[in-house]
Design goal:
Layout: H1 2-22, E1 39-45, H2 57-63, E2 67-72, E3 78-84, H3 98-113, E4 119-126, E5 129-136, H4 139-150, H5 164-174, E6 180-185, H6 191-204, E7 206-213, E8 225-229, E9 236-240, H7 244-268, E10 271-276, H8 281-302
Parallel strand pairs: 3-4, 3-6, 6-7, 7-10
Antiparallel strand pairs: 1-2, 4-5, 8-9
Helix pairs in contact: 1-3, 1-4, 3-4, 5-6, 6-7
């Protein structure tokens, strides 16, 4: 019965993605944060604005004129998802739980990249271990991966969960081919534990960080005495929410935490997409697409060079980072 339910949910998700996103993201060479291809093409004379890192010094020496190498666009995209499915994701007070929103994000990435031979793989942090799915192409593989995510049981409080930082380091060692890495998490671990590993990932891959947030993590409602439970440790604490000063301090601390997360992700070189459980996640994803494409056009017009996680001329087919 659970299998049939997961099939219906996944098909509904696929219809949502295809109907509302696929038309916007059509095209073999543009994604949410497109990047250059990985293979060298023919040399050509240097033009102002070209990336000096692509200088061909052998041709330059022979012709006594500066030359650069263009890049051949990669025709297939290898996408890896690093999904945080720890106990803190089993929480939600709005339209859905954070784990459901995370599944929607992974499904959107999968359905939009699973085409023309593109491969999708995943590392899932859950229940004190990392579940690994190799990168493969084809719809059966994608549906099996999403079904595994959908059927994950809730994590018992107090079960130590793998951390995003060490898992990102592990993924970096496993993934050899340049591609797209999507990290889906609430990023509640201290930024210093995951910032450096994500920065190392962004040096070689396009990196998209999907931050999943619930409104109750940002503001505390006035509901009298509230029992708070730490899902990671199981610790409980009763708090009176009647005091306005307490609610203000909570909101200030939460805003500071989210600002620190955004700053750390920016330093990592990641494209940052925030999804909230009380908002239309598809609309937020579309807004992200449109913004990244505007940045790509603007940087292309000025001839700006592109760093990890940035935008420019894409070399991937059906990319969504």
């Amino acid at each position: 019965m659970r299998h049939l339910l997961s099939e219906r949910v996944l098909r509904r998700l696929e219809l949502t993605v295809v109907r509302r996103l696929d038309g916007l993201l059509q095209g073999d060479h543009r994604g949410l944060t497109p990047g250059p291809g990985g293979e060298l093409a023919e040399a050509r004379p240097y033009a102002p604005g070209d990336d000096v890192r692509r200088m061909d010094w052998n041709v330059t020496a022979r012709t006594t004129e500066p030359h650069v190498r263009d890049m051949i666009a990669d025709r297939e995209l290898e996408t890896w998802v690093l999904l945080d499915a720890s106990a803190s994701m089993d929480f939600g007070t709005a339209l859905m739980e954070k784990r459901e929103l995370a599944l929607a994000a992974v499904a959107a990435v999968g359905f939009l990249t699973e085409r023309t031979g593109n491969r999708v793989g995943a590392h899932i942090l859950h229940g004190g271990e990392v579940r690994r799915f190799p990168a493969r192409s084809g719809r059966p593989h994608l549906m099996a991966l999403l079904g595994a995510v959908f059927s994950l049981p809730r994590t018992e409080p107090g079960v130590p969960a793998p951390r995003v930082g060490p898992a990102a380091d592990d993924l970096r060692r496993v993934v050899r081919r340049r591609g797209l890495v999507v990290v889906v998490s609430d990023f509640l671990d201290p930024p210093e534990t995951w910032e450096r590993p994500l920065r190392h990932l962004a040096l070689r891959h396009q990196l998209l960080a999907v931050e999943v947030v619930d409104p109750r993590e940002l503001t505390l409602p006035d509901v009298g005495v509230l029992t708070l439970v730490d899902p990671e440790t199981g610790r409980r604490r009763e708090v009176s929410t009647a005091g306005a000063r307490l609610r203000e301090r909570y909101a200030e601390a939460a805003a500071g935490q989210r600002a620190a997360i955004a700053t750390a992700l920016r330093r990592c070189g990641a494209a940052h997409l925030r999804l909230d459980t009380d908002r239309d996640w598809v609309r937020d994803l579309v807004r992200h697409v449109v913004l990244q494409r505007r940045l790509a056009r603007a940087r292309g017009a000025t001839g700006a060079t592109v760093g990890p996680g940035g935008t420019g001329a894409s070399g991937t087919r059906g990319g969504v980072a």
